[in-house]
Structure formats: C-alpha cells, structure tokens
Amino acid sequence: MKKILLLTALSLATSSFSAEKKIVRGVDRFQLVYKLLLPKLEKEGALWIPLARNDPYQKIEPITIESAIPWQKTRDAKYHNELLVLKPGPDDSGKRITIRYQVERTEKKPHTEVGDPKQYLKADKLVPLSPRFIPFASKATENLSDDFARGKALYHHVLGRMRYDKSGKGWGRGDALYACDARTGNCTDFHAYFIALCRAINIPARFAIGFTIPADRDTGVISGYHCWAEFHADAKWVPVDISEADKHPELANYYFGHHPANRLEISRGRDIMPEPAPKTGAFNYFFGPHLEVNGETVPLKATFEFKRLLLKR
Known about the structure:
The protein is of the alpha+beta class. The protein has helices at residues 2-20, 134-140, 147-161, 176-182, 187-200, 242-247; strands at residues 27-37, 46-51, 58-66, 71-75, 82-86, 96-106, 163-164, 184-185, 205-212, 219-221, 226-233, 236-240, 263-268, 290-293, 296-298, 301-308. The protein folds into 2 domains: 27-106 and 279-308, Immunoglobulin-like (Sandwich), CATH 2.60.40.2250; 117-260, C8orf32 fold (Roll).
C-alpha cells in the first residue's frame, strides 16, 4: 500500500513538473522579432502586416519597425486590430522588414471588459450559425442553465470529441463544420467548433491568434502561430485553450479558465477587413503578413524569434 501511495505521489509530482515546463504562470517578459523578406516583384503590390497591441494583459513597449519602405498604421473597423499597410514595388524586391516587440504579458483568467459581448453571437464565414451544431450543444449542456457551466460542458465535449491531428486536407482553416465532421484538426479547428457550439446556444464566444512563447527555453525560433478562444458568462470573458488541453492532458483543467503568460496576442476575430481592403477579400484570420500583386496573393517568407527577458523589479 505504501509503495502504491509513493508511486502515485511521484507520478503526480512528475506530472506537475512536466506541466510547469509548458506554461508560465503569473507574468512573463520577452522580446519577439518578426522578420519579413520580400520576394522579387514585377509590379507594385499591397502588403498588410498585423501589429500586436496593448491591452490589460499585454504591455508592449516599445514596438520598433525597421523598414525602408514607407508604411502607415490603420485598424480594421470591426475588431479594431492594428496593422501596417505598405506599397512595395519592383525596387523593393529582396528588402527586409523587421518588427521588434518588447512584451510584458500577464496570465489571463476570467475577466471583465468594456463592450457589448452580443457582437460575438454573429456568424463568421467558416463559423456559421448552422442548425448542425444545435443537437451537439444541447446534448452536451443538458440540464444546465448557468452559462459558465454550459461553457465548461462544451469545453469538455470538444476535448472528448476532437483529436489534434494535422494530416489530410481541410484542417487549419478554422472551419467549424469541417471540425464537427472530421473530429480532427489544429487549434483553429478546435476553437472554431467550440465557438460555433457556444453561439448555437446563445453564448457569446470569440477567437484570437498569436504566438506561444516556449516555456522550457529562453531563446530560439517560433515555428508558427497559435490560437485560442474565450466565451462570455456571468459578465466575464472566460479563456479556454482546448487544442493545448488535448496535446497536454495534464493541463486540461488549467486550460479551462486560463491563458498562460507565455503568449502574445496578434489579432482578434475572424473575417477581418482592413482599410484599404484586400482585393482577395477579408482575412479568414489575421496572423499575416499578406501580400497582393494584381489582386492575387503572393507567398511571403516570415520568421519569428524570441528571447526571454528578466522581469522588472
């Protein structure tokens, strides 16, 4: 019996240590360098680059923009995301644009926020208000009346129904109907499905995208984006990260109600339409950058590097 208890305690300690190597609680401070290399251009194009912004949970100072190409700042009208707009031409081929962020980020818990949450009940192109979602949402939340409890039930429904898997075609677009049927995908798909379920039973829910800063090292390259969600209940926004909970089951309880400090939000919302507008239409989600020439998307190379900084005393 003592041996079983000892092994259980050791297992819990190991699990706790493993979990803490994946997240930063409290406050994190880091520099992030976002570099773009322009391809060869035959004609003038239009380039949109998202900019992370300050909010109560991320303090950014300073933001340094290094570009030989003139730029202007603007926002999208719906979500007020900040972005840069540039007009590179043939003479700008091969030029580099570098954005440096210095960030102090605080762990996010359920929080209040100014604004009408009902705007997040509306459909997005790939997160429709489809009757397809109603039976799943209704069954998962049966006999529950409190929105916090219903949101938690939907969190566990998605966690039990879906599996993180980037094989095949169709994943990665944040297509809620695809995710419902395929039951696999990446973070965009997990959270598109969750948001669709919430909205199906009149719970406001929203999407955000950015970076996860590795917790187990203090410098290096970030391979790409990560996204997450929040739902509204009891006059608060409740953070969730279901795809990370699927990848790290020991953190499943944590990722309901928390976003760790080691991340940076770049933009919020779906179907983002900046001004001036891209000829290819609204951005499905805006992690960017987005380059157009003659109304067609041109591939653009971007790299992301980070360095953890000492917390200010």
